[in-house]
Design a protein that fits this description.
single chain; GIY-YIG endonuclease
């Protein structure tokens, strides 16, 4: 089963990074107000970046690393 780290852009321009095994389902949950508490008041969200990993631990480590990046570094990542 693949593991994904994703970045969505919220309607207010903020960026949210998360982990999932099903990107489409997770983005739909965010947009339905059923996703993370952070995104509930910031819908709709738009998927901007996805990275896929074979191992859950690797994906979670990458999620943590992306969350630690500055906004400028995250925007740079999205532009790649």
């Amino acid at each position: 089963m693949p593991h994904h780290v994703y970045v969505v852009e919220c309607s207010d321009g903020s960026l949210y990074t998360g982990y999932t095994t099903d990107v489409d389902r997770r983005v739909n949950e965010h947009n339905a107000g059923e996703g993370a508490k952070y995104t509930r008041g910031r819908t709709p969200v738009e998927l901007r970046h996805v990275e896929t990993f074979e191992e859950r631990g690797t994906a979670l480590s990458r999620e943590h690393a992306i969350k630690r990046l500055s906004r400028a570094a995250k925007v740079s990542l999205l532009d790649e």
